[in-house]
């Protein structure tokens, strides 16, 4: 099974005060580069970074081995970014995607590996949870790309679809906090 990692980095970061795709950690490493590495090190065969706000600047921070896709309608909300990622994965023939937002700089590759293990164990929808609280990464098999894209709307992600379609939750709190960073 070939898995494409998707980094959601298109948003404007209104709560953060700037696009999170431009943020660097205290060590100077861009969050977007970290997210790409986490997906690759966790077992993804390739990675696509979805950019929108400050797209050219964010794309310049992406490791050269990863792909960049510009989301023209990124301002319409998270659903537009996720739809673009699913469309890219479908067009490129990937069997599944593993999704993470750019604002999880402390994410552990082991969480990606654990979620992908459940996916490869024949669960087509898998989501990491942290103390039972849904988080990232999320893995989605190709059979769900089109129906999920159809169900997405506005600034909401995949959670309602996942819950309605029997997502398998994989506990990952022993690996990292699961928290995203919304404010500086």
UniProtKB/TrEMBL annotation:
<dbReference type="InterPro" id="IPR029044">
    <property type="entry name" value="Nucleotide-diphossugar_trans"/>
</dbReference>
<dbReference type="Pfam" id="PF12804">
    <property type="entry name" value="NTP_transf_3"/>
</dbReference>
<protein>
    <submittedName>
        <fullName>Nucleotidyltransferase family protein</fullName>
    </submittedName>
</protein>
<dbReference type="InterPro" id="IPR025877">
    <property type="entry name" value="MobA-like_NTP_Trfase"/>
</dbReference>
<feature type="domain" description="MobA-like NTP transferase">
    <location>
        <begin position="5"/>
        <end position="165"/>
    </location>
</feature>
């Amino acid at each position: 099974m070939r898995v494409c990692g998707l980094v959601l980095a298109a948003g404007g970061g209104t709560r953060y005060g700037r696009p999170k795709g431009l943020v660097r950690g205290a060590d100077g490493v861009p969050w977007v580069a970290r997210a790409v590495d986490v997906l690759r090190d966790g077992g993804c065969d390739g990675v696509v970074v979805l950019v929108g706000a400050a797209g050219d600047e964010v794309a310049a921070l992406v490791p050269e081995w990863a792909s960049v896709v510009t989301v023209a309608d990124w301002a319409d909300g998270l659903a537009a970014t996720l739809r673009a990622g699913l469309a890219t994965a479908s067009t490129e023939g990937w069997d599944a995607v593993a999704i993470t937002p750019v604002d999880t700089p402390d994410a552990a590759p082991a969480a990606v590996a654990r979620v992908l293990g459940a996916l490869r164990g024949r669960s087509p929808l898998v989501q990491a949870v942290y103390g039972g609280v849904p988080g990232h990464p999320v893995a989605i098999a190709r059979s769900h790309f089109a129906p999920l894209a159809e169900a997405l709307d506005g600034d909401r992600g995949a959670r309602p679809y996942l819950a309605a379609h029997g997502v398998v939750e994989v506990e990952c709190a022993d690996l990292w906090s699961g928290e995203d960073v919304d404010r500086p």
